[in-house]
Amino acid sequence: MGWLSRFLTAVAFLAVGVIFSPETFGSKSDGGNHDHPPKLVSFLKLAHLLCFSTAWGAALWVTFIGGIIMFKNLPRHQFGNLQSKMFPAYFSLVGICCAVSVASFAYLHPFKSASSTEKYQLGFLVAAFAFNLSNLVVFTPMTIEMMKQRHKIEREEKIGDEVGWTKNQEAAKVNPKLAAMNKKFGMIHGLSSLANIMSFGSLAMHSWYLSGKINF
């Protein structure tokens, strides 16, 4: 199934959901949104929920599940090359979703009239967006470039095809050039990982807020 087919399938399921819950787009808005058209409020809520859940799910999978599975089952250089293609797309997706979430939440809760809790939540969403943007624009390009340089040095040492834990550290003990590259790569990769975790944490805090808004 191609990308377009998958997208259209998702839209079809969304349309079916609307059909079976028509009151969603005809309901009156709740407190704090009485100045906005009810249908617009409903669409913005839907956009916020879908984009937030997409960002949260993608971050959870890539950070704690997908990346670990790939690391444990792929030759290390192959794993690194795959990550170099995946992470720009990942940070772009999460960044866009966070931007939509920020815009929709800010529209529904204008800063001047928002409660302290709503202002904090907007701050968490902005933080998630900012951390992802820093990864997309700064840390990821630097990490990929350093990874390529390190791979080149490792190929000269005839390592990098191992699965899982690396032989890099042993080779670096007798190769100062590799040791220096490891230090640079570790610093930038560490900052990238920290920004990713901070973004995930910001989204996690907003998930607690959203859970309190659900009425079954």
Give a written overview of the molecule.
By secondary structure, this protein is mainly alpha-helical. The protein has one domain. It has six helices and no strands. The chain has helices at residues 3-20, 38-73, 76-108, 116-156, 168-172, 176-211. Helix 3 packs antiparallel against helix 4. The longest helix is centred in the middle third of the chain and has 41 residues, at 116-156.
Question: What is this entry, summarized?
Answer:
The chain is mostly helical and 216 residues long. It has helices spanning 3-20, 38-73, 76-108, 116-156, 168-172, 176-211.
Detail the topology: elements first, then pairings.
Blueprint: H1 3-20, H2 38-73, H3 76-108, H4 116-156, H5 168-172, H6 176-211
Radius of gyration, CA atoms, in whole angstroms:
22 Å
Work out the oligomeric state of the chains in this entry: single chain
Helix content: over 70%
Tell me the β content: under 5%
* Overall number of strands: 0
Shape: elongated
Topology as a string of helices (H) and strands (E): HHHHHH
Major sheet: none
Number of domains: 1
Number of helices: 6
The parts where pLDDT drops under 50 for at least 5 residues are: 27-32
* Overall mean confidence score, pLDDT: 89
| Helix and strand composition category | mainly alpha
Euclidean distance between termini CA atoms: 35 Å
Subcellular location: Membrane
Keywords: Membrane, Signal, Transmembrane, Transmembrane helix
Transmembrane segments: 46-69, 89-108, 120-144, 187-209
Signal peptide: 1-26
